[in-house]
Amino acid sequence: MGAYILRRLLLMIPTLFGIIAVAFAVVQFAPGGPVEQVIARVTGQADGAMDRLSGGGGDMAGGSQSFDGGGDVGGKYRGAQGLDPEFIADLERQFGFDKPWYERFAGMLWDYVRFDFGESYFRDVKVIDLIIEKMPVSVSLGLWLTLISYAISIPLGIRKAVKDGTTFDTWTSAIVIVGYAIPGFLFAVLLVVLFAGGSFLDLFPLRGLTSDNWDQLSWPMKIVDYFWHLTLPLTAMVLSAFATTTLLTKNSFLDEIRKQYVTTARAKGLTERQVLYGHVFRNAMLIIVAGFPGAFISAFFTGSLLIEQIFSLDGLGLLGYESILNRDYPVVFANLFIFSLIGLLVSLISDLTYTWVDPRIDFERRDVA
Asked: Of 55, 84, 116, which residue constitutes the final position of a domain?
């Protein structure tokens, strides 16, 4: 097993390199880079915006920003006609675009090997600090969404397998499918209208994970306040989150229930509960338990952008979206690198979970064969 883990870890290196290389290549041809973003702000907001860019965090423009200077820079950057070429050169140096692409790519790889992700182009803060700052929202949504969806889907899936073909199975399947078909953001809007000061009740807050008086609350009230803020976002996300796991659990149990060893166990006089939880459960739950790490990461990093916007939650989903729009490449690449690395590690953990649930599985022996 040690050799298998080592091989998987070594394979992560070329995989990460390929992901970053493709993303870097796409960025080279994408219009509206950070230099053009600043140019658009400058030309659209007159001298006041220019002063804000040149003063304070990051010294973005470098101090030589006359708009009546000569030089034809319009051919290189859209909207740059009439701007001082020295100002454009200062912007290129600020963002590192004065260097050839291969030098920038090599420097980025070297920094990422040391887990140095640099600073945001427009926020004047280290990227890793920015990600850590947004982490509580994503951790809260991802962790509780995964736990709640598994807590609902596993018992429901088992019950549906036992009651296969009955009225209970039919109606719950209909509810699960309808819930899965409704977009989470649409249900979130409905919840806001009904329970968050829309047209009806005003029972739940619409901003942040905690109230403004959080520091003044006792620790039991802090817990209540925390879940009070999470109630609507989690309800909107859970509605469609447990459908896949429920049906997967049901089908997995049905496959095991129909096998010969179950018939043998029943012939020995075991009760249905003993057969179900003493024999079927471990085999049927293999695929469910092994998929838990991947499900958690999926809920942790994806699908929360619209929910974050609707409920004013400043998390990683919103950070990634805004970074792409603003062409804040250090944040974009850092998110891509970190999430890809975590995804690869979780894939390895999922495989190892299979061997923990069922010791008969041996990936190392399979590879050797």
From this structure: 116
